[in-house]
Amino acid sequence: MHSFAVALLLSSAAAFAPKAASRPSVAVAAMPSQDELKKQVGYQAIDDYVTSGMKVGLGTGSTAAFAVERLGMLLKDGTLKDIIAVPTSVRTKEQAEELGIPLTTLDEFSRLDVAIDGADEVDPDLNLVKGGGGALLREKMVEIVADKFIVIVDESKLCDALGPGFPVPVEITPFCHEHTIRVVGDLPALKGKCKPVLRMGSSSNNQNDGDNIAVTDNGNYIVDLVFDKPIEDAPAAAAQLKNTCGVVDHGFFIGMTTAVIIAGQEGISVKTP
């Protein structure tokens, strides 16, 4: 058969062949950013756990800032009334004042209805590591006296065990701080298992980013305990740190959590002990 005839037959077959159905275009929803996830849990914590007339502890950090923002919004539009709050840092205090949130201190009220804050790590038992922002002492003082302590995180903060994912901060006195660091490193629960690193920076929130020693709102230093393996016994480590002279407090928050609100790509979930 001549090549021209072959080409003609192929062309005719193509003309009568069924055409593939065109697929409708599908819009792919953009995954929420980490800031959007933080905003979701911060807002939900206020919506679900704060009612008019409450005394509220306000945490510190990028996630807690969204809860403070939401509280200010609901006070401004009249949804919430007669709220008074205790901030856990100078930074949170300044944000709350800008939003018109009435503030008080634990000197006036030693019991709070609820405290809301983020966390750097959350284990399956809802024990926490906190203090990446340097406010661990004030956070613990406020949150331990709250009837409910609500933790707000995105799913990246969940871990199988505390330790490797985030350094554990320990607030220590400036007096003889090198001695205290050695004592901390030699504690039975920590010896040979972590590296104590004095935090450097212009403030306690800036981890190891400067030539000066970072100073907390309380005038103290922070030592970050860097683990490369999961902590075998976090409650024991917490107890030994608390009993060490020169240690003001530590970033282990053991057995304090009422609920954890978690934002993930699949939505929001809540875990309770």
From TrEMBL:
Residues 1-22 form the signal peptide. SUPFAM superfamilies: D-ribose-5-phosphate isomerase (RpiA), lid domain (SSF75445), NagB/RpiA/CoA transferase-like (SSF100950). Belongs to the ribose 5-phosphate isomerase family. InterPro entries: NagB/RpiA_transferase-like, Ribose-5P_isomerase, Ribose5P_isomerase_typA_subgr, Ribose5P_isomerase_type_A. Its EC number is 5.3.1.6. Pfam families: Rib_5-P_isom_A. The lineage of its organism: Eukaryota, Sar, Stramenopiles, Ochrophyta, Pelagophyceae. It is an enzyme of class 5 (isomerase). It catalyses: aldehydo-D-ribose 5-phosphate = D-ribulose 5-phosphate. NCBIfam families: PRK00702.1, rpiA. One of its GO terms (biological process) is pentose-phosphate shunt, non-oxidative branch. GO terms for molecular function: ribose-5-phosphate isomerase activity. Pathway: Carbohydrate degradation; pentose phosphate pathway; D-ribose 5-phosphate from D-ribulose 5-phosphate (non-oxidative stage): step 1/1. It comes from Pelagomonas calceolata. CDD domains: RPI_A. This is ribose-5-phosphate isomerase. Keywords: Isomerase, Signal.
